[in-house]
Design a protein that fits this description.
Layout lengths: L2 E5 L13 E5 L3 H11 L4 H6 L1 E5 L2 E3 L12 E6 L5
Length: about 80
């Protein structure tokens, strides 16, 4: 399994021991979400209410089994809404 860097928005740091960048071992977005829920339970309400992911600058479906590329940079953002 590979490790990827996950970047969080600032107000989530209080749930991750003041870290805004996490190194997580995961190969899919679904796996990544499971690890975040398990290791950082304070993030669970945000993950459950809806978030957006950007993998290497491209938006991704947060509920997908999409593979995460090697050495990806993943940004977790507040849910993006259409308009």
């Amino acid at each position: 399994m590979m490790a990827v860097n996950v970047y969080l928005w600032a107000s989530l740091k209080k749930f991750t021991n003041d870290k805004d960048i996490l190194t997580i071992e995961a190969t899919t977005i679904g796996e990544l979400i499971s690890v975040l829920r398990r290791d950082f339970p304070g993030l669970k309400p945000f993950l459950d209410s809806g978030i957006s992911f950007a993998i290497n600058g491209e938006l991704s479906n947060p509920n997908s089994n999409e593979s995460i590329p090697d050495e990806a940079e993943i940004y977790i953002m507040q849910k993006l809404k259409g308009g």
